[in-house]
Amino acid sequence: MQITRKHASVFNKKRGSPKTGVLKRNTKLIRNNPVLLIMMLPGIIYLIINNYLPMFGIFIAFKDINFAKGIWGSEWVGWSNFTYLFSSQDVLRITRNTILYNGAFIILGTTASITVAILLNEIKTKIFARFYQSVILLPYLISMVVIAYLVLAFLNEENGFINQSLLPLLGHDSVSWYTSPEYWPYILTFVHLWKIIGYSCIVYLAAILGIPHDLYESATLDGASKWKQIWSITLPMITPTIIVLFLLDVGRIFYSDFGLFFQVPLNSGALQPTTDVIDTYVYRGLMTFGDLGMSSAAGLYQSVVGFMLVVTMNGMVRRRNKDLALF
């Protein structure tokens, strides 16, 4: 029996369209869980104020801001702010530094965080496990300003620990760390990993703790070694978590930890060839010239490129396995 379009429409009206069914389910969910929705309100308000309302300021990137005329009264300049940003001689350097640093942070940070999470999972004594988790997490809770002075205590040319104690012990002369840019890619990478690993490994540790213990017991009965269990059970089971966090990190590959690149090198001009990134460059331009339009253009540039990278990487993951894609 062939169903005509007219019959189908009548049937859908009686049965209810899928959209109507979803709307009814959502309305019922809201009515049945008012307390949970009230608990969500602070997070939703924070998200709207800090993530969505600032999006209305995108048009500042296309204006020559004059505070006497106000933001709305300032003249439109089109792509002039972007032209000024990309015509700078430093744009290639700061873009290169930003991408290379964040690329290294993503790869090394993900590897180190997974490794630390696996090691913490192997600690069976609760007291020691909590102690090590607290010690590893502590650097993440320290302000970057404090960390900058901790680094200075090690690298100070006159009375730093490395110059005064370690290098003489190894038979080397003291090094002027804050005027030698070639060392800072390694220093900044080490400081970043030391600070972030304790926080990053929490998500992976939670994912590992969610793996059914029966899988490990079966593998042990089959004679699988600890390394074989990690490679065949742990890593495949936490792969979705790894991919989601990786995609989120890729989306921020054009953003940098401002405190890390500005506070830790103490804003030393001699170190800018290897420590200057997009965020610090824009900050210096804003503080020196007060060019709000160029700063907004740089922020929009970072956001658009980050969005494109997330969509591209998610599409690549989706081609391999739809279940592992972010959307």
From TrEMBL:
Supply the Pfam families for this chain. Answer: BPD_transp_1
Query: Superkingdom, according to UniProt?
Result: Bacteria
What keywords does the record list, in alphabetical order?
Cell membrane, Membrane, Transmembrane, Transmembrane helix, Transport
> What species does this protein belong to?
Paenibacillus shunpengii
Q: Which residue intervals define the domain ABC transmembrane type-1 in the entry?
A: 95-313
Record membrane topology: Multi-pass membrane protein
Statement: the UniProt record of this protein carries the keyword Repeat:
no
For this entry, the protein name equals: ABC transporter permease
Where mainly found? membrane
Subcellular location per the Swiss-Prot or TrEMBL entry: Cell membrane
* Annotated transmembrane regions: 35-62, 99-120, 132-155, 183-209, 230-255, 299-317
Q: Which SUPFAM superfamilies match?
A: MetI-like
The top of its lineage is: Bacteria, Bacillati, Bacillota, Bacilli, Bacillales
The similarity annotation says:
Belongs to the binding-protein-dependent transport system permease family.
